[in-house]
Amino acid sequence: MPSIRYPSTEFPALTGFTVPIPETWQPDPTMGTQFAARPHTPPQGFTPNIIGTVRRAATGALHNQRTELDQRATQLPDYAERGRTETTVDGFPAYHIEYAYRHHGTITIAQMITLVEVSHPHAVDIIQLTATCAGDQTADYWDTFRLMHADLTVQPHG
């Protein structure tokens, strides 16, 4: 009986990525994601964080993910967009959006999301990097989030 293997040419390993974090931040593997980090000493209240995931998707995934993200985000209570752009990360097509919304009527949440599409001969991977803080924390964390997103690098071969 023939067999197939993962990873292989037909089923490449998931794309890897690197995000530099400030010295005052630490990895947080307890969040149950492929990548997460937060400040060593979180402020009172909401803990700012950055989370990264990679998942296999169909061709055209960036467009589909962008459309889904835009539709989902704009339906959030008191949605306020801070900006969006189509860009590239290490030569791969990407989409970046920044917005805030009211969470359960009690707290404003600010998010920055970057989606990157990495095409392989037989597969497409979508990297999603999401930075989140409370609305009243943006003055302290937004520039740091922007640097982390801007310095995201992609390793297409896992």
TrEMBL record:
Pfam family, one: Lpp-LpqN
Listed InterPro entries: Lipoprotein_LpqN/LpqT-like, Mog1/PsbP_a/b/a-sand
Gene3D superfamilies the record matches: Mog1/PsbP, alpha/beta/alpha sandwich
Keywords tagged on the record: Metal-binding, Signal
Keyword Transferase applies: no
Binding site for Mg(2+): E86
GO molecular function: metal ion binding
Claim: Metal-binding is one of the keywords in the record: yes
Protein's name according to its UniProt entry: DUF1795 domain-containing protein
Organism: Jonesia denitrificans (strain ATCC 14870 / DSM 20603 / BCRC 15368 / CIP 55.134 / JCM 11481 / NBRC 15587 / NCTC 10816 / Prevot 55134) (Listeria denitrificans)
Taxonomic placement: Bacteria, Bacillati, Actinomycetota, Actinomycetes, Micrococcales
